[in-house]
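Before going further, learn to read the protein records used in this course. A complete example follows; check for yourself that the lines match position by position.
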Amino acid sequence: MLAATHTRCGKHRRPGENLAVLRLAAEEATRDGELTPRRRGMLRHVVEAMLARRAGPGRRNTRRCAGGRPSRQPCRPTTSWPGSWWGASRCSTPAPASGMVIEQAQILTTHNLATLVHAVGVTPAEGWAVAARRTFAVVVRLAGRIGGPRPLSTIKDVAYAWRHLVFCLSQPGAGDPGPLIDRCRTELAAAPDRVRAGLEPAVVALIHVARGGRFTGEHTPAGGRRLLGWTGAHWLGGPADGAVRR
């Protein structure tokens, strides 16, 4: 995504370039709420090609990037992030602990959405308010699948979509987030009981933050909770990370 910020870089305008595929996929997801099968296939092909060219677990490039010292130890934060944010103290296996740190990096970088919006100029055709409502609909739909055969992966998808919702609400063009969040809560009231009960703490927290409040650890007053994908036994449902095959 950094290439898109360079004034002399035209890769994001060439249809065959990886950057162009990523940009178009982001535009389509923002506009329509999900990708078409064709776009999803193109995106998968690009990601697989990028992984094939770059380092992967156990590959020579990985060892070279690590200074010749490959390691299977989980990544640990180098800053004083609150333990409740990344929760490694509650996980005994490397994958969840590293995943929690990576998720915090994704939060800080907005999944490159900020780059697409402010550097490339991507904006939803119908405005940020509509994009926020559609994103919340995706959150509700995904939450309804948590009881399926892959609950951990689904919970992570819910968290991804939730972060996109927060990003859309934070854009100046979205207007006052209060009425939008109230509408989301009204739509949530029509969802199945299990979905409504699962997402209600996240919506309560969103309302609190939109009014200028802050989290205390993982919680806010009135029962709000921070919605993350990587954690121990998740409050949305499902076993702890590492307990089942994802």
